[in-house]
């Protein structure tokens, strides 16, 4: 089981699908954070040990600027970032690999046909 904080750039349907699959997933709306800044969401995920799921590349920038080692981030890109059904399918199909990769905190970028991983912290 993984712990996720699903960003407002991703549908609440994705959080619900992850819950249905047995994961501890919370959408930012459940915390009343749908209009919160990325920094607030970032801090909430870090304090609760949650992996952020987003289509917003700003989270990667925040991790780089802060040189932070947490929280981990799953970034949905390309076709995957547009449709909740595809997002959930791609996430669930890759979660075992993602979970293994995130044994060391990092950023996982998921696209329709490939996955990339970069460990944290991001340094020069």
**Stretches where pLDDT falls below 50 for ≥5 residues?**
none
Helix/strand/pairing class, anyone? alpha/beta
Q: How many domains comprise the coordinates?
A: 1
Count of individual helical segments: 4
Give a short summary of the structure.
By secondary structure, the chain is an alpha/beta fold.
What does it look like?
The chain has 124 residues and is an alpha/beta fold. The protein has one domain. A six-stranded mixed sheet has the order 2-1-3-4-5-6, with helices on both faces. Helix 4 links the parallel strand 4 and strand 5. The termini are far apart.
How would the blueprint of this fold be written?
Layout: E1 3-6, H1 12-20, E2 24-27, H2 38-48, E3 51-54, H3 58-66, E4 73-76, H4 84-101, E5 106-110, E6 115-119
Helix pairs in contact: 1-4
């Amino acid at each position: 089981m993984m712990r996720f904080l699903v960003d407002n750039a991703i549908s609440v349907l994705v959080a619900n699908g992850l819950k249905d699959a047995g994961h501890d997933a919370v959408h930012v709306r459940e915390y009343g954070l749908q209009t919160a800044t990325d920094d607030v969401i970032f801090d909430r995920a870090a304090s609760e040990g949650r992996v952020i799921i987003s289509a917003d590349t700003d989270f990667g920038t925040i991790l780089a600027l802060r040189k932070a080692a947490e929280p981990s981030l799953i970034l949905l890109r390309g076709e995957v970032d547009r449709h909740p059904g595809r997002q959930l399918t791609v996430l669930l199909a890759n979660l075992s690999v993602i979970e293994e990769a995130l044994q060391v905190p990092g950023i996982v970028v998921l696209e329709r046909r490939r996955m990339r991983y970069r460990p944290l912290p991001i340094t020069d």
